[in-house]
Write a structure and sequence with these properties.
Distance between the termini of chain A: 53 Å
Distance between the termini of chain B: 41 Å
Structural class of chain B: alpha/beta
Structural class of chain A: alpha+beta
Number of strands of chain B: 8
Strand content of chain A: 15-25%
Largest interface: A-B, 31 and 32 residues
Shape of chain A: elongated
Number of helices of chain B: 12
Oligomer: heterodimer
Number of helices of chain A: 5
Shape of chain B: globular
Strand order of the largest sheet of chain A: 2-1-5-4-3
Helix content of chain B: 40-55%
Helix content of chain A: 40-55%
Strand content of chain B: 15-25%
Radius of gyration of chain B: 19 Å
Order of helices and strands of chain A: HHHEEHEEEH
Strand order of the largest sheet of chain B: 3-4-2-5-1-6-7-8
Order of helices and strands of chain B: EHEHHEEHHEHEHEHEHHHH
Chain lengths: 146, 262
């Protein structure tokens, strides 16, 4: 009874203040889940899952330069192991590179001037801008948890 | 300090180019140094609307690294400056759109406002246009398909950590079934920067032998003034920006009611 009364009064107050109780059109409902993904997380794996949702990509893996996985949304970690060999090869050929970005079979592999390697898998090819937006989010998080 | 604003909508034909051109002229009338960039490298229209005939150097040349941004800058109506995009299809294929970010960074200090006319869609070209700016101004028609598309652009902005400053509702004719400005603000969770009516003179300005922006064709019309209103808001000359109203309960209503009476 009290709940009903409170509901009625809330509706009335909204009407008086002309605040509409609007419904989202059906065609937009599926998009709502991508809105404002909260990246607050308790650990790196949890963060990667949220980051994957925010950037609408399939998988994100972070390894160190030896290929040892630090965090991942993917069970198959072979890509992580291959990274060290690839990085070492490129570095021996061209030693003064700050950023190396490789795109291969849906994977974007980024070696930035740090001690981490970032792997991002997406169905569609990502632009460099999108890849770096993901890496920036990752680096900001890693800085905080350091 | 200069402000770089990308105007984006997702859906085509919503009025991005019309808003960019007229907003640029309106800001220029207020005394600001304004540069318009046509980032629609595939389907450029801004130069036609501004009245530039076949500019020899365009954004295509700048993005290929063949020319500087200054070489591709031309003067338009009311002293507004413009970097047009090229019309050539073969040139377009050689363009590196992601270079736009560094191009804009390089000329930022020369202007008070840089308005970037984004292409339709949410592909690489749009992402580059969005990433080149400080803020994004969305534009939509008051219809479901248009609002759905502008919603997707907002999601892209969030992915890129870009700030959406607000939304402009264009082609408003107050017909039954149109999504209201208030509903659009609530769905997108951004403030409104105003509405532009569905007016005959905007359409007429496109049908002239030489197309003209509305602020040149019919500067004293009410639709021209709606562009000026948006310009005043953006430049900080108008303070009233409609914010998204949060739904509040009965007790907060009572609290506000009594605080009003004090």
């Amino acid at each position: 009874m009290r709940k009903m009364f409170s509901k009625m009064l809330t509706k009335l107050s909204n009407k008086v203040l002309s605040i509409d109780d609007l419904d989202t059109p059906k065609e937009l409902e599926s998009l709502l889940e991508y809105r404002s993904v909260n990246l607050c997380s308790k650990n790196l794996d949890d963060f990667l899952l949220k980051l994957r949702k925010k950037h609408i990509v399939n998988h994100i893996i972070v390894t160190d330069l030896e290929g040892i996985v630090i965090g991942s949304t993917e069970k198959d970690l072979r890509e992580g192991f291959k990274s060290a060999a690839m990085y070492n090869y490129i570095k021996t050929e061209i030693s003064d590179l700050n950023i190396i970005l490789i795109e291969s079979k849906g994977w974007n592999i980024i070696f930035k001037n740090s001690d981490k390697v970032y792997f991002i898998k997406a169905d569609d090819s990502l632009s460099r801008t999108e890849v770096f937006a993901i890496v920036n989010d990752l680096e900001n998080y890693l800085k905080v948890i350091k | 300090m200069s402000k770089i604003i990308t105007i984006a909508s997702g859906k085509g034909g919503v009025g991005k180019t019309t808003l960019t051109a007229n907003l640029g002229i309106a800001l220029s009338e207020l005394g600001f140094n304004v540069l318009l960039i046509d980032a629609d490298v595939a389907m450029s229209n801004l130069s036609l609307l501004i009245g530039l005939d076949n500019p020899p150097i365009t954004l295509h040349d700048v993005l290929q690294g063949a020319s500087s941004a200054q070489d591709a800058t031309y003067q338009g109506p009311s002293n507004v400056m413009i970097i047009p995009s090229g019309l050539s299809i073969s040139n377009y294929q050689r363009v590196d759109v992601e270079r736009l970010i560094s191009v804009v960074k390089g000329i930022k200090a020369e202007y008070d406002f840089i308005l970037i006319d984004a292409p339709a869609g949410i592909d690489k070209n749009v992402i580059s246009a969005i990433s080149s700016s400080d803020q994004v101004l969305l534009i939509t028609e008051p219809t479901s398909p248009s609002v759905a598309d502008v919603f997707k652009v907002k999601i892209v902005c969030e992915r890129l950590n870009q700030k959406v400053m607000g939304v402009v509702v264009n082609k408003v004719s107050n017909l039954k079934g149109e999504i209201s400005e208030k509903e659009i603000m609530k769905m997108l969770e951004v403030p409104s920067y105003g509405q532009i009516p569905y007016a005959a003179d905007i359409r007429e300005s496109f049908l002239l032998k030489k197309i003209q922006p509305l602020l040149v064709y019919n500067p004293n019309s009410s639709s021209a003034n709606s562009f000026r209103y948006i310009a005043r808001m953006i430049s900080g000359k108008e303070v009233e920006i409609k914010q998204v109203k949060k739904r509040k309960g009965f007790f907060s209503f009572l609290k506000r009611l009594f605080s009003k009476k004090k």
